[in-house]
Amino acid sequence: MVFEVIGSPSPDRQAQVTKLAELGFTWADLATEEYWIDQIVLMDRTSYDELIHAAEWLWRVFDKAVRYVTGSRALYRQLSIPEVLWDGLDRLQPNDTGFISRYARFDFTVNQDGRIKLLELNADTPTGYVEAAIATPWLCEAKGIESPNHAMKDLVRAAWAIEAPDYAACTAYGEHMEDTGTIDAFVAHSGRQMTCVDTLDLWIDEGVVKVGKEHIITKMFALYPKEWMGVDDGGEALAYAIEEQFIQLFNPLHAVILQSKGLQALIWSLHESNDAIYTTDEHKAIASYMLPTYTEPLLTRDYVSKSMFGREGGSVELYDAKGDIEVKDEAGFDTSVFFERVYQQRADLPELSFAQGKKHLLTGLFVLNGTPCGLLGRAGGIITGNTSQFVAIGVKAP
């Protein structure tokens, strides 16, 4: 058995919530809803080690795929990447191997038999950092459990020592609790003196990005999904600023290719054709840890349909063994109105028993500065969406 739920909720939840807020995790409770589950999921060490192994190989696989896509407008279109970004992707050089994105998170399903399958990669604006890097180590330590997440802070510091942003931004900074807390944690862990701003306060003057009347921004970390430059007012101006190198945005522009779920379909196609882009070991990793994924509805049963740029469960549809729709996400925004869909073989999340009842567990694994690290547990319905809850994952002692 890979996972075991341990501990019981504290009789004084508010004291725990207050302490977590002091550490920087201020949304353990959201109004009257409990976002944080006051228990620990204990993961078998052998399975954890294999998860790290899977992430290391898949990170190489995805990196090669981005370089294969770069420069091909036909593939940009196939991956549903907004046309406004194409010139920048062609003109700018991607980061060195392994560092196309320095802040990413794989989302896996790991069943109780130890079978690991990748569901998707969030390689542009991964949230859950505060839960993983701050809350999880503290919660595990309080129970005498090992957390592999302690290295996350040092990896962020190393990443920003290279990128050296002067500004960090998210929409509704100071108002949106989760995004603000994520930005603040990144800045604190970077060790840099930085200015945090609201993306809605930015304006662009002939390619120059400014905040206020005189402050020019040339290097910025932004918790802003790049695909929205093809939709938002001002998106084209920001894309131009990046393309002309008036500003360097982190993660850099090519992270949008990693972000597209269409890239998983491309990787699977290259695998099915035994393309020489991948080594024998890389093909083995694809076969072991990825799911058949296509840009056309070729699967007839037990599959999932989702937008190439869907987030928080929005747009996800699950189909059963008869090919009929079983469940559809109704809470998240369906981004397939803007972006194409992919069709992926279904691999359900394991169901665990918590004090609050049975919930399905999604296992997130961060990749920071090229290094797989940092477990993130999300527990909820069969589709992980906005109503899912955070639960800390620790690792059994050897």
Short descriptors:
single chain, 398 residues, alpha+beta, 11 helices
Q: Compute the average pLDDT.
A: 96
Number of alpha- plus pi-helical segments: 11
Q: Output the structural class.
A: alpha+beta
Q: Which stretches of 5+ consecutive residues score pLDDT under 50?
A: none
Global morphology = globular
Strand content: 25-35%
Radius of gyration: 20 Å
Distance between the termini: 15 Å
Keywords: ATP-binding, Ligase, Magnesium, Metal-binding, Nucleotide-binding
GO molecular function, one term: ATP binding
Protein name: Glutathionylspermidine synthase
InterPro entries: GSPS_pre-ATP-grasp-like_dom
Give an account of the 3D structure:
This is Glutathionylspermidine synthase. This protein is α+β, with helices and mostly antiparallel strands and 398 residues long. The protein has one domain (3-260, 351-395). The protein contains eleven helices and 22 strands. The chain has helices spanning 13-23, 45-69, 73-78, 86-91, 129-142, 152-163, 177-190, 235-243, 255-259, 262-272, 280-289; strands at residues 3-6, 29-30, 33-34, 36-43, 103-110, 116-122, 167-170, 195-198, 202-205, 208-211, 215-217, 219-223, 248-250, 293-294, 303-307, 317-319, 325-328, 341-345, 351-354, 357-368, 371-380, 389-395. The strands form five sheets. Strands 1, 4, 5, 6, 19, 20, 21 and 22 form an eight-stranded mixed sheet that branches. A five-stranded antiparallel sheet has the order 14-18-15-16-17. It has a four-stranded parallel sheet with strand order 8-7-12-13, covered by helices on one side. A hairpin with a 2-residue loop joins strand 19 (351-354) and strand 20. It is globular, with a radius of gyration of 20 Å.
